[in-house]
Fold:
Amino acid sequence: KDKGGDLGVSDSHKVLQEVFGYSSFREGQEEVIHAALKQQDVLGIMPTGAGKSLCYQIPALLFDGITVVVSPLISLMKDQVAALNQLGVHAAFINSSLSEGQYRKAMANACRGQYKIIYVAPERLMTESFLSFTSCVEISMLAVDEAHCISQWGQDFRPSYIKIVDFIQTLPKRPVVAAYTATATKAVKEDIICILGLKNPYVAVTGYDRENLFFAVKKPQNKQQELLFYLQKNKNSSGIIYCNTRKNVEEVYDSLIERGYPAARYHAGLCDSERKQSQDDFIYDIRPIMVATNAFGMGIDKSNVRFVIHYNMPKDIESYYQEAGRAGRDGEPAECILLYSGQDVRINEFLIEKQLENDELDFEERKLIRERDSERLQKMTFYCFTNECLRDYILRYFGEYGNTFCGNCENCLTEFDDIDVTQEVSTLIRMVHASGERYGINAIIEAVHGSKTAKVHKFHLEQSPGFGSLNQVTLVRIRQILNDMLLKGYLYLTPGDYPILKMTDKGHNLIFGESDEKIILKLPKEIEKAHTKQKQK
Ligand code: ADP
Ligand code: ZN
Structure:
């Protein structure tokens, strides 16, 4: 009865054109759709905006039975169902936003076979009423949206996603299982396959590179000024400004409103109606500038976003790339700019701790998660300090190999001076070694610089050989060099509350091996000038 085996290329093209009104598939879509139609499990790893929904919606329309889509976000479900209904596709959602009456009606309709696609929140899967429905109809496919939520390594682990596994087991016939996510790290990918129990899945990873996006990191003295300056130069374009706290959203929002910018705001502290209003005003370009926390954006589809400015550094590259990736979905040039300050790092450390307190975890889990999160935060911080191609840095983080020169990021467009810092680097490593690899960044910097601070005194670092041997180099420069060393892997920081500097094998070899390696620090030409001027004064 199931015509699954015969479904193929021409059917899916027909649905693409006749139902969705698109002329051709985007990268990756066709392949995963055909795998699903041939009854093969699927794992689609595609960046935000790549068009994952279509990948399960098209097979859903072609299968005989019903497709169940597990999705974590109520607003996303609503939007998708509304969009499908508008295209004449019968779809519904089952989640906590339905009243008792609405819920009963939807389930009754579902049992009568009214819907081809049913979106459901993971918490609902194992309820009695949902199970009694799924036991008497044919479920052709189970699509798992935001599948990384099943992994503890993912950025937003949801315990309720584990219910999907139990749910599949209750079904009389195992459906095709198709998982989709934008998170591409190896650990997450393995978790999805393993925990969801995907059988010999067809795995599609489509390009993470978004060529039209320009990347830059700025470290302004005054972020607000920098932001206003940028907006002045980019009048009339639509953009998102992400802040790390509600308070920052309010401050930035107020300063924009004061100057007459058409800005909207969005964070979890606002009532539903204002959030809805803000979102609509933004999408329809009534207020084309959005100031928001990371609560904003999932499931938002606005193609003409010309810039995404991060007023604060996010907690990891996953979050950053996902949020920045909301710029330029139309393929036209767009800019992603991160405004860094040291305080962002500390606030993120605080947020990591707070999150750990909220989650109910045992000691071991807490330790593991803390380590993982601090490591990610470190890699995010390194992004702000690297002088190499920013795009390449991001792509390598996700395990893709880009060009070392993209020509469309700030670092690729900046001229650098090469400074030989071999001497300074070996002094720093020697200090770390001589003091027993027991101290953090500040203590080591102060010691080589010869600062007589309380910390240096307390740890008896004045007695270490090498104390003060970089007294001719400014503290700022020593810090730059040290950051670069962490980036290049001569030293590393232990994760946790009090990060300690330790030597890597590479660092060890540099001072004890027979290396005549020269270590070059790349610094932007302008900064270099300012720095030498300062020194001469
Ligand atoms: P994702 O879930 O991967 O972030 P969506 O499924 O929301 O992305 O798709 C993003 C946008 O791209 C939507 O507006 C969708 O209609 C559009 N889209 C998807 N596939 C195609 C296609 N083949 N041709 C044109 N537009 C498409
Ligand atoms: Zn580049």
